[in-house]
Amino acid sequence: MRAFDKINNTWLIFFIAIMSTMSLPMSATAQEGSLTIYVKVQVDGLSCPFCAYGLEKNIKKIEGAKDVFISVAKGYTTFQIVHPTHPSKAELTKIVENAGFTARDVKFSKTPFTEKKEEED
Hints:
It is built from four helices and four strands, in the order ααβαββαβ. By secondary structure, the protein is of the alpha+beta class. It has one domain (28-112): 2-Layer Sandwich (Alpha-Beta Plaits). Strands 2-3-1-4 form a four-stranded antiparallel β-sheet, with helices on one face. Strand 2 and strand 3 form a beta hairpin. The relative contact order is 0.19. Mean pLDDT is 79; it is low at 23-33 and 116-121.
């Protein structure tokens, strides 16, 4: 009966070890980091905060879009998309055009754009 107890104890330890590693929650940033794409769009036609708000509303309709930042003075927007897929350059250009502006350049990155941290003049 002792051999049977050793086998049961071994399986019990193995089971506990497996379950403890599986039940560890991943942090939100670890989950997001693997799916996060940073986007920067140069936008022509931004002239006031009301314009920026209209553009922001359209960008927030993109599934997974967050942390939208718009620089009216410098004419660009940056945001993150936390989703397994993201819109193409053509789709983003259309979103900007539907808000009443012209997208000059669309860039994707796996790291945040540093301009987001700059203060407005």
